[in-house]
């Protein structure tokens, strides 16, 4: 019977998550040589190659892609067993930006709790700017937000592309200002959109401002055009930039900021970051086409 070594499986998952031996070693408080040895030991025990390594890239092999979820479950079970020995519950203040959060959030939180039931997760959903301010003031332990233009720190979780979306039946008369629906004025995506319109000389008028549900409803009803993440645009809308001559919107990045330092919390955060990367895979090609509707990520519980 093949038995698994926790440290070796942990090394494999860390390398897969960070796609880097160096960053995985830093995360585990080890050395690149040590985790390479652990990975080799695991591959020898399983009789398969789990990772493919080139000078520029580290990625899962076909066998590694099959093994990764079982490896995560194995580590989660190990953490639950250890957590059961302690009655101590730890608070984890997590902020997720409204323009980043999607229907997968419950799945991500459930995965985080399954990894460590001793974690008391407190979640705040707001704009990226408000969350970053709360993080800097020490009110939150970690935030997942759209990258701030003035900051380059944080761990990149993936790209975020934006477009102009409207109902297929949306009409705009010649010379009419673009009817725009967007979130509150402090929303960074709104600022990006209005700057792009002004820069292109496109007249616009804001007809809906408010919470995301109201904005989504206005756009879906054919009353306005909305700037959305291509990943999170309402499913009954289409990208209309070419149709109405609207300027392209610059892409951004989703980043994770964290102050967590203890080993258990960092492992939990790694689990969350890995799940977020998996669930937020977007098209590699950012160009917008009026003939194309961007794929929506449909998520199932892990």
Automatic annotation (TrEMBL):
GO terms for molecular function: DNA binding; DNA-binding transcription factor activity. The keyword Endoplasmic reticulum does not apply. InterPro entries: LTTR, LysR_HTH_N, LysR_subst-bd, WH-like_DNA-bd_sf, WH_DNA-bd_sf. It holds the Pfam family HTH_1. It comes from the Bacteria. Residues 4-61 form the HTH lysR-type domain. The keyword Secreted does not apply. SUPFAM superfamilies: Periplasmic binding protein-like II, Winged helix' DNA-binding domain. Keywords: DNA-binding, Transcription, Transcription regulation. Belongs to the LysR transcriptional regulatory family. This is LysR family transcriptional regulator. It comes from Ensifer oleiphilus.
